[in-house]
């Protein structure tokens, strides 16, 4: 069964540059996304409870978006963090684009909700 792309949006009222650092740097990602994150070239090693998973940062636009591809996943899949700032209100939104099996999408969204709650907590947002 092929994975399906989905998008989730969260309002996080904080400076895009501060948010971008938490989405794109090993130290920022290790604050909320994984227990630890190591970087070697463009390969990020994410560590959860001693288990490792590697992803390549495949696209990066400073303070706008960053995209990663899990090395052990389908080549057409990725997870992406996109920062949108509303021109009228100045509100900052974080858009997550990810892929999941249709029967696993609900669990995947719930996991992102928990992760973003952690991110908001460390940002004080």
What would you note in describing this structure?
This protein is α+β, with helices and mostly antiparallel strands. The chain has one domain (4-123): START domain (Alpha-D-Glucose-1,6-Bisphosphate, Chain A, domain 4, 2-Layer Sandwich). The protein is built from three helices and seven strands. The protein has helices at residues 16-24, 26-30, 105-123; strands at residues 4-11, 36-40, 43-48, 51-61, 65-70, 79-85, 92-100. It has a seven-stranded antiparallel beta sheet with strand order 1-7-6-5-4-3-2. A hairpin with a 3-residue loop joins strand 4 (51-61) and strand 5 (65-70).
Structural class based on helices, strands and sheet pairing:
alpha+beta
Q: Largest beta sheet: what is the strand line-up?
A: 1-7-6-5-4-3-2
SSE succession: EHHEEEEEEH
CATH class: Alpha Beta
Strand percentage lies at: 35-45%
Low-confidence runs: none
Distance from N terminus to C terminus (CA atoms, Å) equals 38 Å
Largest sheet: 7 strands, antiparallel
Whole-number tally of structural domains: 1
Give the fraction of residues assigned to helices: 25-40%
């Amino acid at each position: 069964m092929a994975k399906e792309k989905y998008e989730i949006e969260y309002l996080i009222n904080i400076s895009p540059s501060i948010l971008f650092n938490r989405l794109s740097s090993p130290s920022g990602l290790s604050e909320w996304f994984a227990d630890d994150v190591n970087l070697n070239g463009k390969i990020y090693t994410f560590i959860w409870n001693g288990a490792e998973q590697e992803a390549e940062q495949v696209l990066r636009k400073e303070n706008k978006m960053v995209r990663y591809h899990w090395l052990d996943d389908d080549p057409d899949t990725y997870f992406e963090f996109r920062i949108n700032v509303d021109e009228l209100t100045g509100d900052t939104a974080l858009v997550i684009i990810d892929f999941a099996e249709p029967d696993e999408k609900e669990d995947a969204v719930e996991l992102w909700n928990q992760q973003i709650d952690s991110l908001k907590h460390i940002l004080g947002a």
